[in-house]
Each structure stands twice: as C-alpha cells, then as structure tokens.
Amino acid sequence: VVQGHSARYKIVASMEFYTQEIQGCSSKPEFLRSCEVKIQYLYDAVTPHAVGRWCFTVFLILFYILRIFITQGYHLVTYVMGIFLLNRLVDFLSPKIVPESSTDEVLPTKSSEEFRPFLRQLSELKFWNSCTICLFISIICTYWSFLDIPVVWPILVMYFVILFYLTMKRQISTNMANETLMVMTT
Predict the structure, then answer these.
(1) Membrane spanning segments where (predicted)?
(2) Which of 12, 47, 94, 108 could form a disulfide with 121 if both were Cys (CB 3.0 to 4.6 A apart)?
(3) Beta bridge partners of 95
(4) How far is CA 161 from CA 44, 62, 63, 99, 129, in A?
C-alpha cells in the first residue's frame, strides 16, 4: 500500500513539474493574462444575451455617427469601417458550404428531399464581436487627428453605395441559385 502511494505521489509531482511556469519565462506578462481573463469573463457573460449585445452595438453606431457629425471629418475611417462591416455582413449571410462547390454528396441536393438548415459561414456571435471591435477601433481612430485625411466624401459615399448594391445583388442571386433559405438560426 505504501509503495502505491509513493508511485502516485511521483506521478503527481512530475505532472506539477511540467505544468509549472518558469519565473521570468512566461509567454505573456501577468497584466496581459489578467486582462485576457477579464475580457473572456465579460465575453462569456454577454454571450447568451443577443438583444442586449446588439443594443450596445447600435449605441456604438449612434455614438460613432454623432462623433463624425461633431468633428465633420474622418470620412476615410468611416469608409474603411463600412467596407469591413460589409465584408462581415457578406460572410454572415453566406452559407458555410455552397452545394455546388462541395464534392461529397452527403446531404441531399434538392430541397424536396430533406430539410437542410442554413449554416452560416460566420456565426451571429462572431459577427457581433467583429462589428463591435470594428466600431471600438473606429471610435478610437476619430480621436487621432493624423487619421483625419482630407478626401472628397461624396465620391466615397457613392462608391460605397454602388459597392453595397452590387455585393448584395450578387449575394442574393447566389443564395437564390443555391436555394438556401436565410432564416435566423443561432
């Protein structure tokens, strides 16, 4: 019995040896690790509350719009933010697997055979997360004067509207061709 206890102690001691961090050789400083833990805790706390998350994001959008109207600038920052959000929206609306491009015929190819749920390329939570981070970064960028690059903003608005129209037209036609029904699935 004593010998078994000793063997277990050696195993536990060797496990502790390999899991201990060497002083001064950690990959991240303690401050960064504590910040990551706090951010992950906050992220886990807001995950089940979709309506609250999106209300906060709408608040950030309204704050950003107000900031742009007050400063009368940062049109290029707004344009880049719009392009990024459009890219995220397209990923959110795109199916994870396009039926024509998949080579394996595991799922039925006709809608009359069996119901196939719409699986998104980008989940709602990741879509919200990337939009919110983009808005935070854009708001921070409006406080740095060197990012207020003078541009002719009506051209940027016109180009963005045309890009949005063409992108959404292509996305809708692709979804109609693949017969994917975009219902809200989380």
Answers:
(1) 51-70, 127-145, 151-168
(2) 94
(3) 120
(4) 36, 20, 22, 30, 24
Q: Are 78 and 147 in contact (CB under 8 A)?
A: no
Question: Please, are residues 180 and 118 in contact by the beta-carbon 8 Å criterion?
Answer: yes
Structure token digits, residue 163:
């890009």
Residue 159, pLDDT above cutoff 80:
yes
Q: Are the CB atoms for 121 and 95 separated by under 8 Å?
A: yes
Mapped onto helix, strand or coil, the DSSP state of residue 122 is: coil
What is the spatial distance between Cα 135 and Cα 139, in angstroms, rounded to a whole number?
A: 6
The 8-class DSSP code of residue 22 comes to P
Collect all residues with Cβ–Cβ distance below 8 Å to 85 and sequence separation of at least 6. Answer: 131, 134
What pLDDT was estimated at residue 122? 85
Query: What percent of the chain is helix, strand and coil (3-state, nearest 5)?
Result: 65, 0, 35
Q: How confident is the model at residue 186 (pLDDT cuts 50, 70, 90)?
A: very low
* Rounded CA separation 102/118 (Å): 15
Has residue 111 got a pLDDT over 60? Answer: no
3-state secondary structure of 28: coil
**Which residue ranges make up each domain of the chain?**
28-97+116-177
C-alpha distance across the termini of the chain, in Å: 54
Three-state DSSP class for residue 95? strand
Q: Look up residue 85 and give its two tokens.
A: 């959000």
